[in-house]
């Protein structure tokens, strides 16, 4: 960026200004009034045309004059980086905005709005020249949730903003959760499948608790700060304590017997580093692995239906035997209550 580009952007009006547009001579005059040397108006015109290609400014023709306006959100690092932004960087910012929008705190995302705007304009302009492959990349990528798709109650944007702000600023959060008013210390946000959870701690209580954001009826960040617990680490809460496995009960050796052609996924993506397997003559695959006993494990085993048998541990096997009997009764005529004929 030429050294005067930031000065040009500083004197340009925006759509929110009282005088929304300025001609090139007007801009040159404003620059001179700030003590900036402008030898030729055409020099300002050339810089404005370059910034137009970068998506920093907008122009319109009014009669014989060309008028200019600074794009909303273009300021600070966005203004200083616009003409230096490569197509790789512009694409990276757009991918960040698309796939990490929930993880970016609201306060930070507001500050990045200018960069997001510049990067989008950079790719739009690039579609007509050497950046066309970068501009088309966003149309070639998508994310598909591996779970069965369901229609979830959306998280209210106002609630997410308040939760995010309280988490970022380490302020107490007041919320109405399932008709219960609570004040909590927000410790972390976790995306689990298609749900977003707040991990928080009630002041005076030792254990952190999970709250689904879609179940929050109200959330308000207060101006009361709290001291973030030094002994809490979100990564440990998720990866070591395995709280999002739901009701974890410790590690155990699990032995599962899969029907022929049903174990491909487990062989390609092992349950644990110590996983072993054996295949018998009939094609059944027996897998042994050390895993966390939890509700999530049960959900996963149930997803295989009749194509997997729990061999160990015995208490888990007995639970699935009982479930199988209940399922049999549910689907059999003997288990149905027949309507009265009287």
UniProtKB/TrEMBL annotation:
Record-linked InterPro entries:
CBASS_pafABC_assoc_protein, WCX_dom, WYL_dom
Molecular function terms in GO for this entry? Answer: DNA binding
Determine if DNA-binding is one of this entry's keywords. yes
Keyword set, alphabetical order: DNA-binding
Short name of one Pfam family for this protein? WCX
Position of the signal peptide: none
Give the domain of life. Bacteria
Q: Which residues form the WYL domain?
A: 159-220
**Boundaries of every WCX domain copy:** 253-327
Q: Does the keyword Isomerase apply?
A: no
Q: What is this protein called?
A: Predicted DNA-binding transcriptional regulator YafY, contains an HTH and WYL domains
């Amino acid at each position: 960026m030429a050294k005067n580009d930031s000065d040009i952007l500083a004197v340009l009006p925006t759509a929110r200004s009282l005088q929304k547009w300025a001609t090139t001579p007007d801009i040159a005059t404003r620059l001179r009034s700030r003590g900036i040397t402008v030898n030729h108006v055409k020099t300002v015109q050339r810089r404005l045309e370059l910034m137009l290609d970068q998506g920093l400014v907008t122009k319109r023709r009014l009669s014989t004059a060309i008028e200019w306006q600074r794009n909303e959100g273009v300021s600070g690092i966005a203004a200083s980086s616009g003409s230096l932004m490569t197509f790789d960087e512009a694409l990276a910012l757009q991918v960040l905005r698309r796939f990490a929008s929930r993880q970016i705190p609201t306060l930070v995302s507001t500050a990045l709005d200018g960069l997001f705007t510049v990067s989008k304009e950079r790719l739009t302009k690039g579609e007509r020249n050497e950046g066309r492959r970068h501009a088309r990349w966003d149309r070639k990528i998508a994310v598909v949730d591996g779970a069965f798709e369901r229609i979830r109650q959306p998280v209210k944007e106002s609630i997410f903003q308040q939760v995010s702000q309280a988490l970022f600023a380490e302020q107490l959060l007041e919320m109405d959760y399932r008709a219960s008013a609570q004040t909590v210390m927000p410790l972390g946000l976790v995306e689990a499948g298609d749900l977003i959870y707040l991990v928080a701690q009630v002041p005076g209580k030792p254990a952190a608790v999970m709250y689904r954001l879609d179940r929050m009826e109200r959330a308000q960040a207060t101006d009361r700060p709290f001291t973030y617990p030094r002994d809490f680490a979100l990564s440990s809460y998720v990866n070591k304590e395995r709280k999002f496995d739901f009701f974890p009960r410790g590690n155990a050796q699990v032995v599962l017997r899969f029907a022929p052609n049903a174990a491909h996924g487990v062989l390609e993506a092992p349950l644990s580093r110590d996983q072993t397997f054996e295949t018998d003559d009939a094609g059944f695959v027996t897998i042994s692995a050390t895993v966390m006993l939890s509700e999530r494990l049960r959900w996963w085993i149930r997803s295989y239906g009749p194509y997997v048998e729990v061999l160990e541990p015995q208490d888990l096997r007995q639970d699935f035997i009982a479930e199988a009997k209940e399922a049999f009764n549910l689907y059999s005529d003997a288990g149905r209550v027949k309507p009265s004929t009287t």
